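Repro case for the chain-ordering regression, as requested:
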Amino acid sequence: MTNALDREAVPDPHNPLGFDGIEYIEFATSKPQALGGVLERMGFRPIARHRSREVELYRQGAMNIIVNAQAADVPRTVQPTERPVISAFAVRVRDADAAFRRARELGAWEIPVRARAMELNIPAIHGVGESLIYFVDRYDEFSIYDVDFLAIPTVDQHPPALGGLHFFGIVQYVGADRTADWVAFYSQIFGFAPLPDSVRFGILPRGLLLQSPCRSFYLQLIEPDEVARYAPAEEHLQRIGLGTPDVLATVAILQKRGIEFLVSEKVHASERGALTTASLGSVMFELVHDEPVPAAAPR
Amino acid sequence: MIFSDFGMDTASLAGALEVKLAAVRRAGFAQVMIAASDVVGHPSGVDAGVRAVRESGLRVTGLEMLRDFEGLDGRLHAYKVDVAKSMLEVCGRLGGRRLLVEASTSTHAEADANAIARDLRMLAILAIPLGIRIAYKGMSWSRTAKDFSAAGEIVFRANCPNLGLAIDAFDVLASGVALDDLDAIDPEQIFLVQLSDYMWQDVRSTEEQTATATHFRVFPGEGAHSDGLADFITKLDAIGYCGDYSFDVYNDDYLQMPPETVAARAQRAAEWLGETVLRRALPIPNMERLRPAAPG
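-- result from build under test --
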C-alpha cells in the first residue's frame, strides 16, 4: 500500500535518520524560576508555557531550552529536584516515527506514550541515566511548540542570540571503561561517528568526541579520572556546550550579565573556549569556538 | 586468580533467597550469580528479593538465565524482547553488571548467522543504558551456537563492545571441545567462566549430556575430571583471562541438602582450585604434579 505521506528514502548511508541538529534540550528542576534566572543571564528568554504541564520554553537564536518542573510519570526518568539536571534532548530527524521505530528495532528502550488529548505525541527513547532522547520532525513550517505551548503575550518569540551562540554539544559523563559501549549506542541508533583524538574543541581536552551525522552537533564522553575510577558514579548528561564565533567577546557580554567563568591553572577563558562556574549546584555551560551553523538547506 | 574471583550460583542451593545468600557469604565467597527466579519468586515480592541481594554484601556476578532469545521472528521475537527487557531491568536493580544468555535451543530459531548476530546486537544495545554486559554461552544442544568457538564467531559478527562470551567448563569436559580452540578467543571478549564437574567418565548421547548438565553437576574437585578442569583453567590463565569464575553446579541432590552443607562443598572447591590449579598457574618450584599434558 502506498501512502501519499510516505517520503522518499534518502540514500545517505551515514545519516540514516536524516539527523539535522538539536531541536531542544530539556532541564528538570523543582525550582524552575531559579533555573530561569540562570538561563536569562545566559541570554535565553522565556517565550511560552506548556498548556497542561508545569513546563516553560526558553529561546535565544535557534536554541530552545525546555524547563520541566512536572513530576515524572515514567519510570527511569528524572524526578525534578532543586538541583537542575539535563533530563532530555530532542534530535531533529526526517521522519520521527520512522526514526523511533528503527531505534526500537536496534535495541533502544521506548517510553510509553504520554500525550493527552490534543497534545503532540513526541516519540522518545531512554538515553543515559534517567535522561530521554526525543525524535522531532516538525521544525520547518510549523513547530511542536505551536501545538503544546501558549506563547507568553507581548514577548518576542524569536529573541536574537547573544554573540552568535548556538548549540554545539552535550558533555556526557560515563562510567569507567564505558566509552566504547556508548559509542556503539550513539553510532548504531543515530549514526554518530567518533572523531580521532587529534580533533579537539574548546579548552577541556578529555574524553572522546562523537560527531552527529549532520556534523553540527557533538557528544563528548568523559570517563572518571583515575582517582574517581572506583567510586560509584551515576552516568549523566553533565553540561551543554554552546558554540560562538568569538569566545572572548561572548565571555565579556555574559560576564556583564552576571555569568561567572572558571579561572584556574588548567582552565580559563581563551579564544578556544571557556567554562562557566556551576550555578544552582550543577548548571554549567561550556563555550566553544565555532562558526554559526549555516541555515538548513531547503528540504 | 584469588579466592574473590570465585563465586557460587543461587541455583545450586535450596531454600529461601536470604538463606542461600547467607550460606554463600558464610562460606567465604564475595560474589554470587543470581538465578532470576530466586528474585522474582521471592515470597514477599520482587522488591524484597532485590533488597535481600543488595543487603547481602555480596557482589552480583550476574543474572541468569535468558534462554532461546536469538533467531526468532515476528511475534516470538517481540515476546522474547519483552522477556529480555524485564530481565535486564531486574539485573539493573540488583546492581548486576552481567546478563547470562544461553544460545538458543528453540526449534523455532533460525540458524542464519546474520539474523542471530543482529538479535544479539539488539540485546547488547538494550543493555548499554543499564550498564550491563551480555555474556553469551554456547551449548552443545543449541541450534545457534554449539560451543564457545561458534558463540565467539557470532559475538565477533555482532560486534558490540558489551557483548562477549560466557565459557562453561562443561563444554570442554563433556563435549570434548579442544582446549586449543581457546587460542582463537580474545580474552577481553570472555565476560565469565563457569566451572563445574560431573561424576561419570563419559557422556555418550546428547540426551545424556543435557540431563547431566542440568541435574548431575558437582563442584570442581568432586567429579571425575579434575585434571581436565585444571587444564582448562590453566589454559584460560595462559591466554590472559583474569575475570570471574562462577560455579554453575546444577544438581538435584544438592537441592535436597541444607544450603550450608552445599556451600561448604563449594568452599572446598574454591580452596582446591586455589591450592592446586592456582599455584600451578604460578611458577612455583616443586608444584609440578598437576602439570597439564602436552597439547595434542
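Ordering looks correct now. Strands of chain B lie at 6-9, 31-35, 59-66, 98-102, 133-137, 163-168, 190-195, 197-198, 217-218, 245-247.
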